[in-house]
């Protein structure tokens, strides 16, 4: 119906522009829409349809808008509303109206949504979105859920993690193809859509008409915008077009979000072929449409694609609309495939001409492949939309729109088919793209949604040839970067490999295609088709062979390479991703017997490809020297399929193995890699740079090893089990280049190896043999055993965290294989082999993670050095494992010395590989072992303990795996005749061990010692005779044995090897072949080789016994154990032998040999009976002597060094004990000043720089190393007990009204409003925020020494963690961070003593003295006028103190820079330090003693500095509060008169502690104790009165009248002045005269506590009110006079402190109930002075009763400061904050953070919140913590500390279930708060020790 209408509209005669109404008469859209809808609803709606089409033609014409974009005026003239973009908006408005059919658009949306059968979520997200993956619920490993669905579902106890999407994705909730239904969330559990009503027809009717036109309009825009220039269109142009189209695509996206009903309409529109044809065919009169169609064809052509109907007339109907794209092959032929190929070739080449010798390779592809690559035919809007999406390189908006449609099943199938059809085109665009990374992500974003669904993948595979397309596309892609292989035969090689330097590989451009391929291979149905299709397998092997031998390394022999290429990254990544992962994918489907056929197919084509490869590189039998490639994917495919066949499919191994010759070829290259590894570790490749080491490490690294080294070793094991063992062994030694070393002679020439490399190459060869023979990974171990072995190996190297173990255990690299790390077996094996060590804190502040460490029995039985060697990336890890093993043995008392690696029993071999053990029983190996044992015994050079260890290991392996027992008797018969065969009689090691070898002929250099020794005369004739006789049988045997000639290569290699290796053979091999020996000596080698005959007369057994003697250093040390204890032979497994060194190993081997045969036992006993003659003294040549001396010297030097280090360590330790130990009193430097020792006259200081000690003097002052820092910790105290929580919802917010800082601020500004400024600044303390805290490490230095130290630091170029220019340094002794030096005041201790004597003066006299002393200006022993060094230093440190904090924290006066300000600041510094110390002691002084805080305290010195400066400001005696406290003033009434002038602050509003500090700092120092006590007593009276006043304000009117009454009765008793009742009643009476109590409305009564005030509660209130003052005063007394603080219970703190301060009369001890009032000591009659004080209050409250009352109620009891309380689970924080928007720019910040002190949300590094070059975190740290900020980074779960200009990462307080941090939330496992860590953090904050404890600080340059 719609189609017919559309056709009519296209053919309509009138040009569309004619119908445009004039701008003024623009139709009312809604009315038009309603009218049209009505017209269309009629049964005969032709007219309506035509009208609508005409309207749409007009509104949605694509001609106008882009013209408008180009040229605004024309558009305006055309009536589009002017300006570019206006027309599009107009069009969109029309569309919305039409869709809604006259109603409101929003109501329409709501109506459609009601019909949404939302069974699927389908939410699409882009990169960086946070999503979840649950492995328990997922069927496909790509399954992901949006956060909402995840939290709505139930996943408790599941294996899930949170992740940040890299490429974007979509939510799978509700899709049972991808996940189990149990995991669906509540919204998507409803399956049936039956309860959703049917969509009414007329609701979406308009949409069906409007949308085709709209989408066509969009496509026309896209065609129009894409101009195909000669070169690639610039990004800019494309982006411009896309920006113009933003609203249209967004509109479509909004439509998809309306739910299922709208999506199905869209699907109809997008996939309808008819309407597409009608609208886009480009026929008809409309010129614009025609032009648009032409542009489309040009775009197709230029993309190297043909439009299949080019040559035919338009409009002919397709053969059949239903057939798949590829049915159009006829047309493909017609267009001329070859021409097409060439053109695409040229186009590829222009980018690559610089590569000169590149050889291009064309596949002989048939037309089918060609059509895959080049033919595209679009039949629907969807297809062309996708085409343009690709052309425009996948714009994010388009991708999101296309994906949003996926919940519609019909669309999903159509879209997938379309995607597959465009696959080749995608690849071509991707290759050309500049932004290939972004594009790759977008491609995968789409494809992973399509191909993860097995049903869909199968359907597309069957209907659209998905596999063919993918393989062909991959092949084509790689073809563009092939070069000729230089492996083996450079000139004639026909093999081509990928060039790893090309961008395609370097940038990993291929990964989207490979990842799709891996994805579809994970589906069984698809993989089966692949494995059955022979053609595909051939093509795929062809693809894999491109990687075979890539990135060839050639060894540099002369000079170092100039340029180290880094191509190896690309090569390893390519092999892993493009070859290994698909291989693992295929292997995962070959698990059962029924799949044998698949394996046979793969193996067959793999072998064919290998054969082709060998032919192509011209390989005969010897690999080319000095080159190696680590990439042999074909070998590895073959190996892995073999392994699977034997392990899972019960295939007979021999049925899939090739002939011997092929096996010999197969073994060469993997063996070459093993030898090269040894060469690289021996530094033979150093001239190739570091990258070659990188390759060797990557090859064995955990992510690569099971796709690289494991298959290689397995393949070598298979070859070894099937080839002649002698041949194999000789090949190994030849490849490792150590053949020449294996001679009995003490000197030899090695033609292929330098002497310095011989030892490590020999170790390498033996180690390789040990690994080859003892590794069982593919030879019979079950998966669980493998997992266990891997885990044990990793744990033995080091303790590991759970996540690093997961990372290090090589898992199947194909993530879809279903073997998930962290699976059940992983956890169970882990708990079986390891113990968990919970995370601990070291005092140094370094935080440990939760670690797993091997159990004792694992060390005992399962430690396997072979596995460790195989898996170590760094050689040091092997050493680490051995050290840990040694430590375990020492600790458990099993073995005290240095143990050798233990010998571990192996799992039994799978029967198919039994042949491997023949290696241990072949003469060649026995000759090698015998030779090496002999050489070690004779101390030849270049042998090491490691060699011996491996030799013994091999012997032991042979004994463990000996053939079935031959009876001894049989063997000994015919012994003499058979012995002449060669060295050994047979091939069984057990027999050969006892075989004595008498003479050996060796070829030696003429200079060798052997030659001189054997003068011909001494060669005894009988020995010659025996040699002669031995020659004959040998020849006979040569002729008889037909075997020698069977396979020439073997025989040759064996012959050659036997000659070379022995250069002797034994008695037998006498025929000297000069030819070969010449061939093997280098042409110009200096000394001639001559033949010498050595007398040996040893067997392996006798050599072993002699070795035992040698190792133990005693003659005859070996005594056969069974002679004493016959039992040993019956139960051989003796724990005594399982751990130990070489001696133990020899004993173990001899025991096993004796067990295996009686004969051996006899011979061992015999050898032991002969008292062994001492080994003849060796003749040492000069050269050897030199090396020996060198060794000895080295050894001595080493010992010396050890000794020195030990001494140093013990010194350091003793220093640490004295200097750093917190509790030892000896080192108490700062305290020396104040300890009273009459005999010492002056305090003595040690300078830690020059080491001299002496007193501090005026001209050479000493100073304390101090760190000054601004602190706002005090300001964070709160008055309520309820801890503040971090807000995690919008409702919870933290307001700082109740913090100490806020309360003090409010108080000061209140006072400043009503009273004189100068007086206000004496009434309070500041420094609650930004107060300066001074701390010291306790070390002192001369100030001049310090200056020179700072100079040297300044000139030091080393990068320091601190800024010397800011005066920062580290203490030269303890390295603690510091930034200033506090001068020590020169003073003698005796003086102190005098000052402390109690005097009997009355309080009145003392008061007078105090007043006089305060009046005396600068009565100092040091006069300020004389500028001494000391006073200069004091001034400079005062400057430092001021500069430590910001100006706003110093200036509180209304007149800036007034002296009162400085005065206030200085005494507040003292207050801050005292208050902080109190907090460090836990907020009270109950613990008493000189606690740690006191020990390192510098308060005494600080007081001197402050006092010196305070004395510069003398207070006018008029205003000195001391007089108000101690005298009755006359002029009380005169003050009332001048109300206008601001009065002084009433004394009752003063802060008593501040008054105390002012009084004391105004006194000359040092202060006398009785003066101090006097001041305290006077101030206590004021404090007590303040308490009474506050109490009277707090209680109710009735309480007040009651008190007034009771107190009045007792007023005249004797100690009325010391009774609180009397005083209280007096206060109430006095204050009642004013208005203080009056204005209490009814509402205020509620706030007052309803508790009735009993005498007890009153007393408690008063004590609590006074305690803070008493605590601070006691601390001050403790610092000034060095008196210890008494410890006490909390309830007696008041009485103890008051008696300590001398407030309690000494006789007052007995009375039981303690009354605070008894401490009062009134200097003047109490009632007079109280009424004087109350008078001031009354005169103020006359005017301001409210404020007057507020000022009286001081909060004295602050709770200790705490950081915010954090929730248990990190997810709660994350979910709230990571989406929270920034308050400045309302975007979600990239790095959100939250302050843990006050809960403020900040942007880390956010530019939006930057103010004057300060980013928000730095700014906040200054405002909130005066330079210290503690922030939790939301996206990283890490805490960052900002301290001044530096910052450091502190670590995380959230750990996962395994006690590990998850920085950056990479693993995304659930995290839980670690309370201990949080406590540590809080502790460091409160104690200001961030600078000392955290080590890694760096400057932040205000950028955080």
Describe this structure in words.
The chain has 1904 residues and is an alpha+beta fold. Helices cover 51% and strands 6% of the residues. It is built from 79 helices and 28 strands. A hairpin with a 6-residue loop joins strand 14 and strand 15. Helix 42 (923-937) packs antiparallel against helix 43 (945-960). The radius of gyration is 47 Å and the shape is flat. The N terminus is likely disordered.
| Overall residue-averaged pLDDT value | 78
Give the low-pLDDT segments: 1-26, 64-84, 309-368, 815-822, 965-981, 1012-1050, 1063-1086, 1174-1180, 1219-1240, 1388-1395, 1418-1425, 1490-1494, ...
Adjacency order of strands in the biggest sheet: 22-21-23-24-25-28
The tally of strands reads: 28
**Global outline:** flat
> How large a portion of the residues is in β-strands, by DSSP E?
5-15%
What is the percent of helical residues?
A: 40-55%
Largest sheet: 6 strands, antiparallel
Structural category is: alpha+beta
Tally of DSSP helical segments: 79
Rg, Å, rounded: 47 Å
Give the terminus-to-terminus CA distance: 64 Å
